Amino acid sequence: MKLSVTLLAVKVQNIQRIDRDQYFECNEFRPIMMLRTGFSKTATLTSSKFLFKASRQQLKVQAQTQLRYSHNSSSKSKYHYQYQRFRNTILGVTSFAIAASATLALSSTVCNEAPQTPPRKVSVEEFVKHNKPDDCWIVVNGQVYDFTDFIAHHPGGRFPLIRNAGHDASETFNKLHAKGTIEMNLPRDKHIGEIDGEAPVLEVELDDFELARQENVANLPPLGLITNVHDFEHVAKNVLSKGAWAYYSSGADDEITLRENHYAYQRIYFRPRILVDVKKIDTSTTLLGTPTSVPFYRCW
């Protein structure tokens, strides 16, 4: 069966912002379409409703459509199979056409309708008042977050958050967490704003271990000399804090499988005269179906 589709026009009206999370509703989005087949059937889009969620990188379009089909055939049984195939094809083509045309037609409009709200400025005087377990604000990298409801769910326990309430915890946070960790775990409304000034930082007495660690950090070897995971581990052990090293070096159960696999690989010997050019290497692979740049991962 031969099918051709022509998108004649797109009419977009009544775009409204309906909540603070940048959702938009459009009640009159009606692509006018002509669909021609070998046995003269026509499908007309009769009603549609869309929800648009604007983001900085993409426009997600969800469509709910109703289609009406009309045909002039007097023998339904003769064309029943073709009709079913036609109906399924129409649904697929129409959904794709609507999503594509909606993205093109509304991307600029939605972006214009969703101006970025400037972040709120939080004074230091206001910030330091929120220094209790039931009212816990913390500064991380210049941003003020409300961690009150997250204290009970913090994987590292309640104490680190309670101790840093009303303080700037950027240094401690950056040692243990990857970029984007807060955005992944805290709701957007827990971001209070930007700190206006210098928030107080907890004073920590430097012991001999910390002094030695800071000296090791200042004398890190060149990255080009760190060629394998064992080298990374050796350097990390000398430059990470006690808490960070305990976090990254710990494992589940007794790590018998890890040790035995390590010993098994050590029993494999390579003939030294068989060499491979490793000037340009690619360490990327997949873990559980997810692309990764190196064949190991960390979790937080």
Automatic annotation (TrEMBL):
An example molecular function term from Gene Ontology annotations: heme binding
Q: Which residues form a coiled coil?
A: none
Q: Which Pfam families match?
A: Cyt-b5, FMN_dh
Q: Which UniProt keywords apply?
A: Heme, Iron, Metal-binding, Oxidoreductase
Cofactors demanded by this protein = FMN
Q: Report domain FMN hydroxy acid dehydrogenase positions.
A: 221-300
Q: Is-annotated flag, keyword Metal-binding?
A: yes
**Domain Cytochrome b5 heme-binding: where?**
119-196
What biological-process terms (Gene Ontology) are attached? lactate metabolic process
The entry assigns this protein to a family as follows: Belongs to the cytochrome b5 family.
Entry protein name: Unnamed protein product
Species the sequence originates in: Ambrosiozyma monospora
